[in-house]
Structures are given as structure tokens and as C-alpha cells.
Amino acid sequence: MQEWGFTSSHPPTMSAPFGLTCLSPLTPVRLACLLALFFAAPLASSAQEFPSRAIKLVVPFPAGGPADTFGRVLADKMGALLGKSVVIENRAGAGGLTGTASVAKADPDGHTIGIAASSALAINVNLRDTMPFRPLTDLRLLTQVASVPEILVVGEGVPARTLAEFIALAKAQPGRLVFASTGLGGMPHLATELLKISAAIELVHVPYTGAAPAVNDLLGGHVQMMFADIPVLLGAVQSGQLRALAIGARARSPSLPDVATTAELGMPQVEADNWYGLVVAAATPAPIAEKLRAAAVEALHAAEVKDKFLSQGAIAVGNSSEEFTAYVKAETERWGKVIATAGLKLK
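Request: output the structure for the sequence above.
Response:
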């Protein structure tokens, strides 16, 4: 025991860190231990004291949308668990890039966190030559918050009542059917591009500046079909204004249990969901990041949070940082192939 600096053969006490005493001469092992303790102590202390004030949760989309809804539900529960308010800041712009970039550039003390969408973390890196941040190096990915499957719908004027009938109609009228999207390169757009590639059909794309005008034109018969997040189309489908042909997910949605998945309909490769994750600046100390992640996971696993997400057609996730990071990497690669095949590019 003398080699490690313990002063007796009895079990060490905590009168000095880990039972070590600063005896001389310092050995390399003892010096390394002391240095590790010196640097670790402030981090442990800061994690215990965190949060010291209200936490800002940046939602990079306007108020009232799905991301805003998920953010507010999560903020309320996390605030209760952490003992400090979690305040929403809507910071929209550039399809979610503006708000997410502000999180990447925030002070890395854990008091600024963000809900980042698939577009910001996995899609735009394939669409743009330049990015305002690097998702996997400028951000610390804490946990996946939600998964929102894309649903394929057609207007009342479209005679197809099944996915197979729609594909047959598109093949019979190449380049005649028009699909709407919430914008170039968004998940609704990419989901349709994936369907076009998989089914070998030609459709005309009309991008809109958001979900509301796209859905309005679909209801008005100006466009024939659309993929979109379930919350966006749920009311119109339930009321019979739009006809749901398939859900691009591995499992049926509890919100629309009668709508089959693309996998059930023989097209498992046409899988698309819009997902959101909790992120902080990359330099945020690991103990603080883990405290935030643990609170978020506990919140997302709470029954009342799951129920609120399900009412919006979403699935609350809450996984490890490693699992979420691996998922983001896989999604980046998968959608990169679709983007390259479709020849898409944003400035």
C-alpha cells in the first residue's frame, strides 16, 4: 500500500481525496491522480449546483407547430424535475438552422438547450455546401425526444384508394400528378422523393413555405398528394377531407390504427419520420450534460408526457446519447443517398 501513498495498512479514510496524501516525493502515478482530482472537483461541484437559474429551451420553429408543442410539454416536466423553470424561446429561420445554430454557439454552461429537428441534424448537411454549425462536432446530442411518422394522403379528387392504386395511377399518367411539400429538402419532400425512387414513378413537386398553405391547396384540389407529419394531417384525415394511403413507419400509429404502414404494403424501404432531439453546445461539461439528459429521459418516459405526445401523433423516445448519435449518423447517410439520387441542392 505504501506505493500508492496510503499512510497505513488500514483501509483509507476520506480525510484526503480518495485516501491519498501529498507525501513527497511525488510519483508519476500520484501526480496524475492529484491532477485528475484537481480538475474533476470543479466539474462535480458545478454539476451539483446546476442549474443555478432558469434554463432556456430554444425551439427553432414558430410557436404552435409540432416542435413547439413537444418543447413545451418537455420543458414543463424537465423544469419540475430540475427544480428550475425551463423557458421556451422560439427562434425560427432557415428551416430550423437559425435556432439550432444559436444553441451550438451559446455559452456551454447547460443553461441553453435546444430541440433540433432531423432537417438540422441529418438532412441539410447533405443539401448545403456550407452550414452555420457542424451537427456532430459543434453540438452534444443528448437524447432523441420524439419520432413523428410521415403519412401519405391524397385529396378527394384522386381516384386511388390504396397505395398500389396510386402508384398505378402515377405510372399511367407520368408527370401529371402533383405533390405538395413544406419546402425543398424538408422531410415531406424527401419522403416523396424516396417513394418516387422506390416505385419508379414521376411526380411534379410544388414546394410551399410551410405546412398550412400546402394542406390548404391539397384540400382545394390544386395538388393531388402529400407526405407530412401525422399531427399536420390528423384532423383532415379523421374528418374524411383527405384520404390516408400509408404511414411511412415500422409500426402503425395509435392515432390512426387503421392506416397500414408502407412495410405492410410491400414497400419497407419507404420509411420516413420527422424526429427531434435535445442538444446543447458541444463544450458543455459532461456531468451537466448528463444531468440534463437524465431529466429529459425521465420526463419522456413519464406516462403523462407519452400521452400528450401520442395525442399529437408522435412517439416519445428518450434514449442514451450514444444511441441518439448513432441514429443521427445513420439518418445522415440514408437521406444523403436519397438527396444524391434525386439531385437536390440548396444554396
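Strands lie at 55-59, 86-90, 112-117, 139-155, 178-181, 204-207, 225-229, 242-247, 273-281, 315-316.
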